[in-house]
Amino acid sequence: MLAKIGVSYKIAPLATLDAITLRDLPPFYKILRSIPGIKGTVVVQTCNRVDMFIDANDGAEIIEKILWNWALQTKFKLHELKRIAEQRTGEQVLEYLVSLASGLESMLVGESQILGQLKSSLIEARGLAASSPILCKVFDMSIAAGTRIRDRTGIGRGTVSLGSAALKVAEASLGNLNAVKVLLLGTGQIGMVLMKALKARGINEVTVASRTRQRTESFCRTFGGIPADFKNVISQLGPFGLVVVATRAAGYLLTKEIVLPQLKSDRNPKLMILDLSIPRNVSPDLGQLKDVVIKTIDDLRDITDQAVSVRKTLVKEAEPKVLEAVEKISALLRREEAEPMVSELYHRADKIRREELEKALSKLNLPKDQREVLERMSLSLVRKLLAQPVVNLREAAKKGDSKLLTVAGEIFEGE
To answer: Do residues 320 and 98 touch, judged by C-beta distance below 8 A?
Structure first.
């Protein structure tokens, strides 16, 4: 059984997504692996969603256990998590995953960042021995389908990116950003997207800092920016008008206690802090300060709603292609259900072939070349006899014909 449990920006505000984000995934994966009936999991966490994809035996108890452990790990109320968590099973999971890869589930419709996030989530799950063969296939096929849908519909072209949307929000408060000093805290994917958006606006003098100096310098060499020491720069915010925070820190990096002593109205009449982190890295109490403006991903919603409106035609074009891709993936997965039976059928037939060939050859005194002729003939005979039954089995599996598969299993059942 394929299942998906998740919460997205469509259901919950940023604060809730922040609260239910798993800050330490390896131990949580270990917990999931210990639950009887779970064959594999892949957790996808972005700034807009927390999703868990599960390959498991049938049973509502497994879902209950996952939700219970999720609530326990995040110290979130279980009844509230159950209320907001969306559950999908079977082909619904495939439809969601292909839609996600296609950009239809994104806050910024068509944005391509989610493709990288899906790939990295799968790589992490594989590295921790948490995924399963079926989940790996489903992710790989869904990502490939999503990429094709993007290419055929053009839904990703001209999309308002997370970076450009963030800059629009900043400009609404600060005006033209060309005269504003910018500090970027974080060198991950979101930091990269922000830096590209800044460079596209001609804003190249951006101070960049992260927890590791080496990573900061590497980021600046690749994407631009001026590297700075993380601890020093957050204690010297005075020159900056815009601070973008996009890290994976587990706690608050900027608090009222850190920022308040640095505010000087003559040097910095307004400081805008844009927190794009999940979990949240900027303390909400900073919003109480007169000269500080706090914005989060939730504040990008108006821009994303406009993007959806403009791209409705492309979305309508993409939706049937998603359903087509889901059917193809489902058919391939169903066909694989017949493969163990096919493999066993060939194995048993070949065993019988070899036994009977040895009996015949032991009674004949044939030269080597004639023995080889009989060997090839027996192989050809088995393959031709099994060719059509195997085709029928695979087609039955593709169509979901469980009755025929059951009958075939009984017919070909071993001793």
So the answer is: no
